[in-house]
Specification:
elongated, single chain, transmembrane, transmembrane helix, alpha+beta, binds dinuclear copper ion
C-alpha cells in the first residue's frame, strides 16, 4: 500500500512534467507562428508587391530642390521604372523591393550596391554629381536572363 502510493505520486509527477514539456513546445511553436522567418517589420508577400503602396506605382518623385525619391521594383528580368532621368547633382533616395527572387542593385563606379530581397524593402541614398548614363546592374544570380537584367539612370 505504501509503495503503491509512492508510485502513484511519481507517475503523477511524470505526467505533470510531460504536460509542462508539451505546453512549452506548444508555446514556442505558437510564438514562432506569430513571427515567421519573413516577418520582418518591412516584409510583405512578394506576390502582393504590385498591389502594395508605394510599389503599385513605381516612379520618380521630387521631394526637395534637387532631391528625389525613386520607388522601384526589381523582377526577373528588369527594374521598374526603367531608364530614369534626373538632373546633375540630384540626390536620389532609392526604395526598392523584389517581386519574385533575390536580385541585386549595383551602379558600377559608385558605392551603390545593395541586395533586393523578395518582399523586403531596401533603402539607399546617392547623389549623382557627374552627368552621364549610369548603368544599374543585377549582381545576384536570378535566372536565365540574369546577365541582361539592367536599367540606366540618365543624369544631365
Ligand atoms: Cu536579377 Cu540577376
Amino acid at each position: 500500500m505504501h509503495i503503491h502510493r509512492l508510485e502513484k505520486i511519481w507517475i503523477g509527477f511524470g505526467v505533470a512534467m510531460l504536460v509542462v514539456f508539451l505546453s512549452v513546445i506548444g508555446i514556442s511553436a505558437f510564438a514562432m507562428g506569430m513571427d515567421p522567418p519573413t516577418g520582418h517589420s518591412h516584409g510583405m508577400d512578394p506576390a502582393k508587391v504590385d498591389s502594395t503602396a508605394p510599389f503599385d506605382k513605381p516612379g520618380l518623385k521630387q521631394v526637395g530642390e534637387n532631391e528625389y525619391e525613386a520607388v522601384m521594383t526589381a523582377f526577373a528580368f528588369g527594374y521598374a521604372p526603367d531608364n530614369m532621368e534626373i538632373p546633375a547633382g540630384a540626390t536620389v533616395h532609392f526604395t526598392i523591393t523584389s517581386k519574385d527572387v533575390i536580385h541585386g542593385f549595383q551602379i558600377p563606379g559608385t558605392n551603390v550596391n545593395m541586395m533586393v530581397l523578395p518582399g523586403e524593402i531596401n533603402h539607399l541614398t546617392h547623389t549623382f554629381d557627374k552627368p552621364g548614363t549610369y548603368l544599374v546592374l543585377c549582381n545576384e544570380y536570378c535566372g536565365g536572363a540574369h546577365e541582361w537584367m539592367k536599367t540606366t539612370i540618365i543624369v544631365k
